[in-house]
Amino acid sequence: MQFDLFEQTQSRILDAEDYKTFKERLAASNCDRCELSRSRTHIVVDRGDHRSEIVFIGEAPGENEDREGRAFVGRAGKLLDELLLEIGIDTGRDVLIVNIVKCRPPENRAPRAEETAACMPYLKKQLALVKPKIMVLLGATAVKSLIYGKGSFSMEQEVGKIFQHPDFPDTDLMVLYHPAFLLYDPRKQQPMRRHLRALKEYLEKNAIRPLL
Predict the structure, then answer these.
(1) Rounded distance, CA 197 to CA 201, Å?
(2) pLDDT tens-digit profile of 169-179?
């Protein structure tokens, strides 16, 4: 009986025909697909504007995100806001920011494979509804979770590149350092700024504009 109820709840979320309905249903669902549900305060769906053609994908909510129910609002999120504002992007208006998993892992550890797998249908539904022109993957967990075959790789070699993948035929992808890593190693902030300037050039070249 519990299993049937769970399946019905998940189906209702994934059957949503528009993003607003999807977000409302997921946020209110009390999802318990994995053990992360046991300690969370909020299901963190996103931050920003779902009408944007630019989606940033991080790893998981942290303490501040779990408390507020919004993605990337802690120290790392504020740094990302500042860096993107340097290239003219307002994260509250011009992009959509989401995470691989929607609930905070204990002690901010990386999400486990089974937790990522449990949440992946929701992320894929988000992307299907938004239909972004470009997805920016923040950090190794986002890359390994979304790009099949990326089990072992060097972030140094991947960051800053814009590429395509057969799983996302209508969307370009870019890998960037996670802003939490920039807090840990501030020396990476200057390379990050170069990569963001490259992103800005890509957006201008492809007429992908922040919303007005």
Answers:
(1) 6
(2) 999 999 999 99
Pair 136, 54: CB distance under 8 Å: yes
Cα–Cα distances (Å) from 207 to 15, 135, 157, 182, in that order, read: 32, 15, 27, 29
List, in order of start, the domains of the chain with CATH numbers: 2-205 (3.40.470.10)
Q: Residue 192, exposed/middle/buried by CB under 10 A (0-12, 13-18, 19+)? A: buried
Three-state SS at 97:
strand
Mean pLDDT of 205-210: 87
- Name residue 176's beta-bridge partners: 138
CA distance 5 to 21: 19
Distance between CA 86 and CA 82 in Å, rounded?
7
pLDDT tens digit string along 127-161? 999 999 999 999 999 999 998 665 667 888 889 99
